[in-house]
Design a protein that fits this description.
- By secondary structure, the chain is of the alpha+beta class.
- It is built from eight helices and eleven strands.
- Strand 8 and strand 9 form a beta hairpin.
- Helix 3 runs antiparallel to helix 4.
- The model has no long low-confidence stretch (mean pLDDT 83).
- Keywords: Coiled coil, Kinase, Transferase, Two-component regulatory system.
- GO terms for molecular function: kinase activity.
- It holds the Pfam family HATPase_c.
């Protein structure tokens, strides 16, 4: 069930329980901090004129909704105040709470000339508002989890395409190239050449698909591109092979951590290129409960005196973000670096 469907059920149920002619659920206009909110927007309504309330903005001043949003206390009034037609009379409003903060307001209205809401309706309305707040929070958490799952699945597919499909197609292309060079028939060499070109086009199309899979959230696209660009620039002309793996929803990495991530990858890969004498450097960036960056190589292994002196900047960046840096020479050869910080 979507958030909109949940809220619709809430206002319909509230109208029945409170004996109201209309019920409205209003939230801050732009999700800003409470002190910066200028208006409340109707996001769900029930009653004969419910369709006319959709998206209506109610000012905070001189309205029962605004008074409840600012004070956090339930109120009853003989009129709802500004922003609503004068055909409405008695009103009852209670806050929707998200922890200690007010996240919205539930407003019940009776037509002009109707009986005022009795005091014993207030606890009933507060009970409905509590359920509404819980429903909103649950629906948003489910949506957030769905988005994370979707991003993870797209990352998995992209990784499978990159690590397996492209490599196999590339290997087939190399085999055809080898056969082509040994073929004696000009016609056969021509046809094998065309096949190789077709496979190269297939690889380009797969890489385009991988790019599209990574290309929805703007932040994720930027960070992914930036890291790949940095790595590409550093290993270019070095004779070193680079392997890059990125997993998890990079879109949730805030800008300040993204800057740290770029700096860490740049410094670690640069050290590998300059000092490791390695054939391959592997960079693994993962986003789960924390942002972790692993850089490993198959070189000579880092000298003990460089662990502290040469990587002080990376350690400082980890400390600034509440994280850690671990560097060690691998028993199999080479160096392993792991920089990790918690996500806010």
């Amino acid at each position: 069930m979507t958030e909109g469907e949940v809220l619709r059920l809430v206002v319909v149920r509230a109208r029945e329980l409170l004996g109201a002619d209309h019920t409205l659920l209003v939230l801050p206009d732009d999700g800003a901090l409470a002190e910066a909110v200028e208006a409340l927007v109707v996001i769900a309504a029930a009653g004969p004129a419910a369709d006319g309330f959709d998206g209506r903005r109610l000012p905070l001043s001189r309205t029962i909704g605004g008074a409840v949003f600012r004070s956090g206390k339930a109120r009853r009034a003989l009129s709802p105040g500004a922003g609503l037609d004068d055909r409405f009379g008695p009103a009852l409003a209670v806050p929707l709470r998200a922890g200690d903060e007010v996240s919205g307001v539930l407003i019940a209205l009776r037509d002009k000339g109707g009986e005022p809401f009795e005091a014993n309706r207030v606890p009933v309305a507060e009970g409905v508002a509590e359920q509404a707040a819980l429903a909103v929070r649950t629906a948003r958490e489910q949506l957030h989890q769905y988005e994370l799952d979707l991003l993870n699945e797209r990352d998995r597919i992209a990784r499978e395409l990159h690590d397996h499909v492209i490599q196999r197609v590339f290997a087939v292309g190399l085999s055809l190239q080898s056969i082509r060079h040994r073929a004696e028939s000009p016609e056969l060499r021509r046809r094998l050449g065309e096949c190789v070109e077709d496979l190269q086009e297939v690889v380009r199309e797969i890489r385009g698909t991988i790019f599209d899979l990574h290309g929805d959230p703007e932040g994720a696209t930027w960070l992914r591109r930036r890291l790949q660009q940095v790595i590409g620039e550093l290993v270019e002309d070095s004779g070193m092979r680079s392997v890059v793996r990125m997993t998890g929803p990079l879109s949730v990495v805030p800008p300040d951590l993204a800057e740290h991530a770029e700096a860490v990858v740049r410094e670690a890969v640069r050290n590998t290129v300059r000092h490791a004498g390695a054939k391959t450097v592997t960079v693994a960036v993962a986003v789960e409960n924390e942002l972790s960056i692993g850089v490993s190589d198959d070189g000579a292994g880092i000298a003990p005196e460089l662990i502290h002196s040469g990587l002080a900047a990376l350690a400082a960046r980890a400390a600034d973000a509440g994280g850690t840096l671990h560097v060690q020479a691998s028993p199999e050869g080479g160096t392993r670096l792991l920089w990790s910080v918690p996500l806010p």
